[in-house]
Each structure stands twice: as structure tokens, then as C-alpha cells.
Amino acid sequence: IGATMGNSLKRISTMRKFQGHCTYPYPGPFILQQQSISSFVEHVRKVLAPHSPIPVTFDLSNPEILVNDERTRSFLTIPAAQMMSQNAPIIRMIRSIDTVMKRFDQSEYYEEAKIHTSIASVP
């Protein structure tokens, strides 16, 4: 998990690695007190432990442009090919991470998660 120093707080990167080859984003950066980071990482690892790597197929014929909430960056994305019901394994994984986010008084993932991969971004 990447982080940068800022006074006594650290800003956690918006991308998380899962078993070294998949990433999943949060809706934006979040701030934790430095003394909370180890505990946060431990809780994330604990909730991810029961999850197996999840194969996702992407629909190359249907690219989308997404914009961050602050409207400062646009992303060229490729959406997941399969429909993602609320019971899909990747959505269950995201919701399990939401429990950790709530525990640390952070925002949860978007209500309607768009599973995608970003292939380019511009400010």
C-alpha cells in the first residue's frame, strides 16, 4: 500500500494491490493518522484473506470516459464484460473492505461500483 507523508498524517494511495496482480480503487484518497495505518493494513489483509483471486473479463468494444468526483482528471476505461450483481465475488470483496473503511471512519466504495480498468488518464 503506497503512502506519502504529510505532517503527522499519511495519505493512502487510491489503488490497492490484491495478491500482487489485481488492483481495486476507492472513490478517492483518504487520510489516516500515522498510528492507525498498521492497524488499517492488518484489517484489510484480514478481510481479504478468505477471498480468492477473481478473474474478470473486459469488454474492449465498449470503452468509457469516467471523471473523478473533483472533475480534475478524466480516465479512459474498459468496463468489465460480465454484469456485476450485488452477489458477484468482486462486489462481495469490495463490500468486505467497506467494513474496514467504516471502522476507520472513511467513505465506503461507490453504491453502484463500476468494475473497469483504466488505460489512460489526463488532467
Quick tags:
123 residues, alpha+beta, three-stranded antiparallel sheet, disordered N terminus
Mean pLDDT: 77
**Which overall shape is indicated by the principal axes computed on the Cα atoms?**
globular
Distance between the termini: 23 Å
Biggest β-sheet: count, sense, barrel? 3 strands, antiparallel
Can you tell me about this structure?
With 123 residues, the protein is of the alpha+beta class. 22% of the residues lie in helices and 30% in strands. It is built from two helices and eight strands, in the order E-E-E-E-E-H-E-E-H-E. The chain has helices at 37-48, 89-103, and strands spanning 3-6, 9-12, 15-18, 22-25, 30-33, 64-67, 74-79, 116-122. Strands 1-2-5 form a three-stranded antiparallel sheet, with no helix packed on it. A hairpin with a 2-residue loop joins strand 1 (3-6) and strand 2 (9-12). The model is unreliable at 1-23 (pLDDT under 50).
